[in-house]
Amino acid sequence: MEVPDYELPETAVAQVPAEPRDSARLLDAISEPPRHLRVRDLPALLDEGDVVVLNTSRVVPARLRLRKQTGGAAEVLLIEPLGDEVWEAMVRPGSRLAPGTVLYKGGLPVVEVGERLVSGNRAVKSLVADPCAYGELALPPYIHRPLEDPERYQTVYSARPGSVAAPTAGLHLTKAVLDECRERGAVVVPVDLAVGPGTFKPVKAARAEDHEMHPERYVVPRQTWEACYEAKQQGRRVWAVGTTSVRALEAAAATGSLEGRTDLYIRPGHRFAVVDVLMTNFHQPRSTLLLLLEAFAGPRWRQLYAVALEEGYRFLSFGDAMVVGRA
Prior knowledge:
Blueprint: E1 25-28, E2 35-38, E3 51-55, E4 58-59, E5 63-68, E6 73-83, E7 86-92, E8 102-105, E9 108-116, E10 122-126, E11 161-163, H1 175-183, E12 187-193, E13 216-219, H2 222-233, E14 238-241, H3 243-255, E15 259-262, E16 277-281, H4 288-297, H5 301-310, E17 321-325
Parallel strand pairs: 1-17, 3-12, 3-14, 4-11, 14-16
Antiparallel strand pairs: 1-2, 5-6, 5-8, 6-7, 7-10, 8-9, 9-10, 12-13, 13-15, 16-17
């Protein structure tokens, strides 16, 4: 299967989030032809009884900028705890950090680098109570400006810490917009998927099916699942805010388990069991997120992206959004 690709000008990549949040542009691709709205217009697109699903995972300050005892710089990106104070992590420069190397922050030993894992990442042992207390948010590498307010890389409804990267479609939503969604008769419910770096890892394989997904922890609360089921039974729509909400819901449908770990790899050919409408940002070329979009919306995504680029929409994590129905 061909990996979806397109030409993304560097000038289209947003470097700062929209201010205020709900002023971000929203391409309404449910309509034909598509309409140009703002995120604050989202509630008007909802029908009574629709279900809006949010990923409430909170981003942790997982990037640790540390030093070896010799003074050399090193970086550790914590991915998830493995138990017994051991984390899976991406470590740089990995080839020069032998197992047993202790890394420091201002003279304080913070982590000890361990062996290489099957995933290719490293095991690191925490030497402090909470290594994230010595870290910072890991903004995507295409963001070149520092973030003045770290809370702008969190959704307003973030709850349980656990993600390395933000569920970015939700960054546009405000409490006022969500309250208006409820006033329209929509049901707003949570899921929790701990977003790992694997979600945003480019597909380097020549064929999409040769790419491997990194497993991520997910939780779909019982009331969320029941709300989605009831909506489907009544002919109402399930709206997923972000691809991570899609993955949580579709993983629960595929496994029959409302909690666990999933490496579900959604690409063309996937049969969607839950989600009817997707609110999502504009994604990187050759990414699993773009594969998910193609699986959901079909080849029409290319025309929508062409419209967005022509109309000056901002792309990627701090960029604008669109809503699109399932093909």
